[in-house]
């Protein structure tokens, strides 16, 4: 799988799927979640509500999929990152699950390109360096069948620097 790094706004990315750092309610939070719902339109929230009615909240580390609505991407994969806390090992495992479960869901849809934000490194306060190592490892170790390219979309300078160092 090819790995790319882009600095910018994930809502502008043309990929088969972009990943949202959602919260377990699936009904909107802050940060990238707000940006995705704002740019993608009500259709995404409507589908999130349907998923909630069907299966309840989305557990940490798991992923669900909706349409991309008005976004340039066909799908949004919503995954729930862990809130950083004292149980560091558990947090690391859960963050890794976010990437792996998003990739698995993408494969089940036959997706070729997928773009990730830096899950949990905003409001959820996961240390950025550690989060980036987990993200890059999870993607590198994944054995893809349909996915050809994963894009890490870094919004802030610090994450961009960290990812640049890891990927180059
Ligand atoms: P979390 O609650 O998982 O920490 P946040 O949305 O607060 O989620 O932050 C996750 C990451 O997304 C942060 O690194 C933040 O800088 C980044 N981010 C915020 N807005 C955007 C956007 N429009 N495109 C890409 N990344 C974004």
From TrEMBL:
InterPro entries: Macro_dom (IPR002589), Macro_dom-like (IPR043472). Residues 1-168 form the Macro domain. Pfam families: Macro. Transmembrane segments: none annotated. It comes from the Bacteria. PANTHER family: GANGLIOSIDE INDUCED DIFFERENTIATION ASSOCIATED PROTEIN 2-RELATED, MACRO DOMAIN-CONTAINING PROTEIN. This is O-acetyl-ADP-ribose deacetylase.
């Amino acid at each position: 799988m090819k790995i790319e790094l882009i600095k910018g706004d994930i809502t502008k990315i043309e990929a088969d799927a972009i990943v949202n750092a959602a919260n377990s309610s699936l009904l909107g939070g802050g940060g990238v979640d707000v940006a995705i719902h704002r740019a993608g339109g009500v259709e995404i929230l409507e589908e999130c509500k349907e998923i909630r009615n069907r299966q309840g909240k989305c557990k940490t580390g798991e992923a669900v999929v909706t349409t991309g609505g008005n976004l340039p991407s066909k799908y949004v994969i919503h995954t729930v990152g862990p809130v950083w806390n004292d149980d560091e090992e558990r947090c690391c495992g859960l963050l890794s699950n976010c990437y792996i479960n998003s990739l698995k869901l993408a494969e089940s849809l036959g997706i070729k390109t997928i773009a990730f934000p830096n899950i949990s490194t905003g409001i959820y306060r996961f240390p950025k360096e550690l989060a980036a190592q987990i993200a890059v490892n999870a993607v590198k170790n994944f054995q893809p069948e349909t996915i050809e390219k994963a894009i890490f979309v870094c919004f802030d300078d610090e994450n961009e620097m960290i990812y640049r160092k890891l990927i180059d």
